[in-house]
Amino acid sequence: MMTLALIGGFLVLLIIGVPVAVALGGASLFYVIVEGVQPHLVVLHRMVGGTDSFPLLAIPFFIMAGSLMNSSGITARIFGFAMALVGWLRGGLGHVNVVASIIFAGMSGTAVADAAGLGMIEIKAMKDQGYDLDFSVGITGSSSTIGPIIPPSLPMVIYGVMANASIGQLFAAGVLPGLTMGLTLMAMVVWFAHTRNYRRDVRFSVSNLWASSKRAFLPLLTPIILVGGMVTGVFTPTEAAIAATVYALVLGVFVYRTLSLKRLIKISFETIETTAIILLIVAGASIFGYLITTSKITDHVADAVLAITTQPWAVLLLVNLFLLVVGCFMETIAAITILVPVLMPLVERIGVDPVHFGVVMVLNLMIGLLTPPVGMVLYVLARVANISLDRTTRACAPFLIPLLVTLGIVTYWPSMVMFLPNLFYK
Question: Per-residue pLDDT for 1 more than 60?
Answer without folding.
Answer: no
